């Protein structure tokens, strides 16, 4: 479909102008890998014959851009959902009035975070919590500590989280938060000082029945521990106010593994629809953090071969595959030594390292020949050129481990070439699902076994797959998991909002 061929695009020419100039002119430096963000293009996200954008969707999209013209990631996430849920309003016209509500956070909290560095100097960062939607339960979603953090990124993440949490079948609303703090190069004491100051303020706005944060980029077990300790001091309460806690103080077994494992369980289900499996498949993974590590582990356990990993400095390609022993090296490198992925290629002769080159229009990682690709690093790390390379390299399945790693145009390219594509809100939902299980265990004051949690996680991923697959069929877009996930996720939230008087 040509860029201007969509009736919605024609109807929203003004929106497109605002967004394109906003994205390319003002936000290019913030785009992943330093590239200009893709201009908005009409997609094949909605299948042939499906309804085009109705006026309510167009107005909601225009409203989002008009209210916050400087939030390109948020526009992108909203657009991807709204473009695909139009057919819902043919069946349930009254639900369309929820669009302006669902695209506006219930509450945004912004605060300063003062802390002292190793030299005793005062530093100040900016902290946030976006409480997006509480129709299904307490706000739930991670905290991100990364220098790029801003309201656009956190609102996109919080928006995605609402539909993701809905898909898990567990009672959780959606939220996200974080700070523009860079943990890279900081000592444990500096990270602790930051986390304590961050939680001193955040503790006023969260609670086990209100808002239950967890980890995300730059926030793992260490940071959750420091924040939990501070919450306890400030509030004098030992409650499940955070998930991703250590096993010793109320964490759940399998939570560290859950996002990566869940992603691979989802991909298994997708392959099964084609009578295929991961056995013998070559797999590209990006990132080398929590999600990437456990996706790699599960793929290997299921007989696949992961050949790439990356970080913000570049990527490694290991033609022999990253087996359990090599993965243990990566885990120590990243989780303990906090070193760079290049070290992998120094240690293993079968591997090469290629430094990131932000001037290139594509990331060479996605040009490696493979069967399956699992982007697990960050948003907009797979652009249109990368998607073309994936198709040319023979990739049959793309499962998003990160949140929104594929641009809209990359997604369209994959769908147009019949690549099975799983959007993050479905395929990476295992992490938050396991967080939901951690909340249940905390309420029950019980700890379930590893096997029990893993089997619950596996079942939830199967259910999410089923919901996305069957909803796509029901709405005339068979095999389109973007349509299926967005509609299934939206319907539950919309019904709950209506029942609560919106
Ligand atoms: N941890 C979780 O449970 C969940 C995480 N996610 C998403 O998965 C993605 C990864 O998160 P985690 O593994 O938890 O974080 P992490 O902090 O453990 O790892 C992040 C990884 O991404 C890489 N990375 C970050 N920015 C990059 C850039 N600009 N270019 C290349 N690589 C970059 C880092 O080097 C690191 O390897 C994020 O998009 C996050 O939102 C989604 C669902 C749950
Ligand atoms: O476990 C959680 O609550 C948060 C997970 C998360 O941030 C995500 O799904 O993106």
From TrEMBL:
Q: What's in the keyword line of the UniProt record?
A: NAD, Nucleotide-binding, Oxidoreductase
Give site residues, Important for catalysis: 216
Q: Which organism is it from?
A: Porphyridium purpureum (Red alga)
> Per UniProt, where does substrate bind?
140, 161, 164, 215, 435
> Under the GO molecular function aspect, what terms does this record hold?
glutamate dehydrogenase (NADP+) activity; nucleotide binding
Question: Which residues are the active-site ones?
Answer: 176 (proton donor)
Give the residue range of the signal peptide.
none
Quaternary structure note: Homohexamer.
Q: Which SUPFAM superfamilies does the UniProt record give? A: Aminoacid dehydrogenase-like, N-terminal domain, NAD(P)-binding Rossmann-fold domains
Q: Which PROSITE patterns match?
A: GLFV_DEHYDROGENASE
Q: Which domain of life is it from?
A: Eukaryota
Protein family per UniProt: Belongs to the Glu/Leu/Phe/Val dehydrogenases family.
- InterPro entries, A to Z: Aminoacid_DH-like_N_sf (IPR046346), Glu/Leu/Phe/Val/Trp_DH (IPR006095), Glu/Leu/Phe/Val/Trp_DH_C (IPR006096), Glu/Leu/Phe/Val/Trp_DH_dimer (IPR006097), Glu/Leu/Phe/Val_DH_AS (IPR033524), Glu_DH (IPR014362), Glu_Leu_Phe_Val_DH (IPR050724), NAD(P)-bd_dom_sf (IPR036291)
| Name of the protein in question | Glutamate dehydrogenase
